[in-house]
Amino acid sequence: MGDVGSPLGFYILKRDELNQLYVCETARGTGVAAKLLSDAEARMFNDDVEKAWLACAIGNDRAARFYERYGWCRAGSVVIDVATPVGVMPLEVWRYEKSKPGADT
């Protein structure tokens, strides 16, 4: 979202996971994040995902409030593997989930 070469934000999906959601600092608080999140959800649910999930850094209360405001529920803490330049590292994160509207999951 934004001009070529100067994006306001983006997201990356990996099947049922919202793997990345980023909004540049100048666009925060403008509704860009909500539009990106809504589009990401629509794409996942249109691709027959019944329950979407995302990882949120533990302690990132601002992001947590944002996700919760848009219907995402904290499912608990999980450990995910994160690729780094020196190898894979385990990282404990909050897992958030959101079910497809009308899904019995």
Count of beta strands = 7
Low-pLDDT ranges = none
The shape, in one word, is globular
The biggest sheet, with number of strands, parallel, antiparallel or mixed sense and barrel status, is: 3 strands, antiparallel
**CATH topology, which one?**
Aminopeptidase
User: How many domains make up the 3D coordinates?
Assistant: 1
Helix content: 10-25%
- What percentage of amino acids are in beta strands? over 45%
Radius of gyration, in Å, reads 14 Å
The first-to-last residue Cα distance is 31 Å
Classified by CATH, the class is Alpha Beta
**So, CATH architecture?**
3-Layer(aba) Sandwich
What does this 3D model show about the protein?
The strands form three sheets. The chain has a three-stranded antiparallel β-sheet. The chain has a two-stranded antiparallel ribbon with strand order 1-2. It has two helices and seven strands, in the order E-E-E-E-H-E-H-E-E. It has 105 residues and is of the alpha+beta class. The longest helix is centred in the middle third of the chain and has 15 residues. It is globular and about 35 Å long. It has a single domain, classed as Gcn5-related N-acetyltransferase (GNAT) (Aminopeptidase).
In short:
By secondary structure, the protein is of the alpha+beta class. The chain has 2 helices and 7 strands.
